[in-house]
């Protein structure tokens, strides 16, 4: 009896792995952004990865491609969350310079970086609390191909930035459909997310940048929304445009999410009108 009691006690103390069929409502874990945090494609939300509730683990793996007329960005990563409170993430980005590398005979034809993220839910809840869900996050970014960024004026090859974001799901908030609203601020000096280094010859201090999104859940499986992200402008080499997108998310179940978007990225590294397609596939556990 003593041995049995010990085993039962130990089992009760082990954190649960959330079943993808249990936990939070479908789509409330969001997708995974291009920097690895849970939320939208270009902006994080206050939600955490996966569908785990209190005392449970959850998470996801993802792969994303963004294709414009001159560039291609490939991202892959993983995120874990525990207790619906803390999220840890990792993403690796590879930015293919395409036409720019060929036209300028650049020494590298791609740039890459690693992003290590942490997000903490401070208070509130996406749906069940009077207050919106509010989370504080930080991302440490490490640029892996610094030669080109250094030549155009970037000051450092790694940096840490912070963001604060709030999210709320309003039942019936859009003509009877559920409405998700998200808004946040970011404190950063990353040039093009950090792919062109951090800080510049024009400005080397961090800037307070706005970002946000809104999405309509037409039913539990389909989400249509828009996102906006303000960008710094640290380099005299080229302007840096704010980003926006229109996205469609499909959540057939809690194990799979597919997001397709039209992204307006503006000027990137001297080339204008970098608009194109965004595709992301996520598996949750």
Automatic annotation (TrEMBL):
Keywords: Signal. The keyword Signal applies. It holds the Pfam family DUF3034. Residues 1-20 form the signal peptide. InterPro entries: DUF3034. This is DUF3034 domain-containing protein. It comes from Stutzerimonas zhaodongensis. The lineage of its organism: Bacteria, Pseudomonadati, Pseudomonadota, Gammaproteobacteria, Pseudomonadales.
């Amino acid at each position: 009896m003593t041995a049995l009691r010990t085993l039962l006690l130990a089992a009760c103390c082990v954190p649960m792995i959330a079943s993808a069929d249990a936990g939070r409502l479908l789509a409330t874990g969001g997708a995974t952004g291009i920097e690895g945090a849970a939320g939208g494609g270009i902006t994080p939300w206050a939600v955490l990865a996966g569908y785990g509730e209190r005392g449970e683990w959850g998470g996801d793996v993802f792969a994303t491609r963004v294709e414009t007329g001159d560039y291609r960005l490939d991202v892959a990563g993983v995120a874990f969350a525990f207790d619906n409170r803390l999220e840890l993430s990792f993403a690796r980005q590879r930015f293919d310079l395409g036409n720019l590398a060929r036209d300028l005979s650049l020494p590298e034809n791609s740039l890459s970086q690693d992003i290590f993220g942490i997000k903490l839910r401070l208070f509130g809840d996406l749906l069940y609390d009077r207050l919106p869900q509010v989370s504080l996050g930080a991302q440490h970014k490490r640029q892996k191909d610094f030669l080109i960024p250094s030549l155009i004026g970037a000051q450092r090859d790694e940096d840490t930035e912070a963001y604060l974001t709030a999210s709320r799901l309003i039942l019936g908030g859009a003509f009877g459909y559920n409405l998700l609203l998200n808004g946040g601020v970011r404190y950063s000096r990353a040039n093009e997310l950090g792919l062109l280094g951090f800080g510049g010859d024009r400005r080397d201090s961090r800037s307070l940048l706005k970002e946000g999104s809104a999405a309509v859940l037409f039913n539990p499986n389909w989400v249509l929304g828009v996102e906006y992200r303000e960008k710094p402008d640290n380099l005299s080499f080229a302007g840096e445009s704010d980003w926006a997108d229109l996205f469609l998310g499909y959540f057939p179940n809690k194990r799979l999410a597919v997001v397709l978007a039209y992204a307006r990225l503006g000027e990137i590294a001297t080339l204008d009108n970098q608009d194109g397609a965004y595709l992301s596939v996520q598996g949750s556990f």
